[in-house]
């Protein structure tokens, strides 16, 4: 379980991962060194996975998000998951309890590239039997806060 200080540290870092340990410590009531120790322990435990910049996909020419429901043959889950993890256009992959086995979030430049991705690549991943794709027209909310989900 996380204590109040750790929860506050995570909320602050999720909002701005570039805070210095001095700034972070000041906001949570710790000096720089104990704050650094708390963050390092959260990293060691895997609570903080990594730090990265959030890129505006449209600003780099990636305008089309799509969600692909994938049904696969039962014996190929391990191979499929390994292939998805290597595929650069798949942002996220989730197992599902619905009609499909997986839900993929893919990102491409446009509809032509999506067509090629689905026909030439995703459909040929190990065990794929069926695809059903939903194209995103407009993003209403982009990646909310994980820590805000805590109640």
Automatic annotation (TrEMBL):
Keywords on record: DNA-binding, Transcription, Transcription regulation
Superkingdom of this protein's organism: Bacteria
Keyword DNA-binding assigned: yes
Entry annotated with the keyword Transcription: yes
Annotated ranges, domain HTH asnC-type: 2-63
InterPro entries, A to Z: ArsR-like_HTH (IPR011991), AsnC-type_HTH_dom (IPR000485), Dimeric_a/b-barrel (IPR011008), Tscrpt_reg_AsnC-like (IPR019888), Tscrpt_reg_AsnC/Lrp_C (IPR019887), Tscrpt_reg_HTH_AsnC-type_CS (IPR019885), WH-like_DNA-bd_sf (IPR036388), WH_DNA-bd_sf (IPR036390)
PANTHER family for the chain: LEUCINE-RESPONSIVE REGULATORY PROTEIN, TRANSCRIPTIONAL REGULATOR AZLB
Name of the featured protein: Lrp/AsnC family transcriptional regulator
Organism this protein belongs to: Steroidobacter flavus
């Amino acid at each position: 379980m996380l204590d109040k200080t750790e929860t506050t540290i995570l909320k602050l870092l999720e909002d701005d991962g570039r805070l210095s340990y001095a700034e972070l410590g000041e906001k949570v009531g710790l000096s720089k060194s104990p704050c650094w120790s708390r963050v390092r322990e959260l990293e060691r435990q895997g609570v903080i996975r990594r730090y990265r910049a959030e890129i505006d996909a449209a600003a780099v020419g990636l305008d089309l998000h799509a969600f692909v429901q994938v049904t696969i043959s039962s014996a190929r889950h391990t191979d499929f998951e390994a292939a998805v993890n290597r595929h650069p256009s798949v942002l996220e992959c989730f197992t599902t309890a619905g009609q499909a086995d997986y839900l993929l979030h893919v990102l491409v430049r446009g509809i032509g590239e999506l067509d090629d991705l689905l026909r030439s690549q995703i459909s040929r991943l190990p065990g794929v039997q069926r695809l059903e794709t939903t194209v995103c027209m407009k993003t209403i909310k982009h990646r909310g806060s994980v820590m805000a989900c805590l109640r």
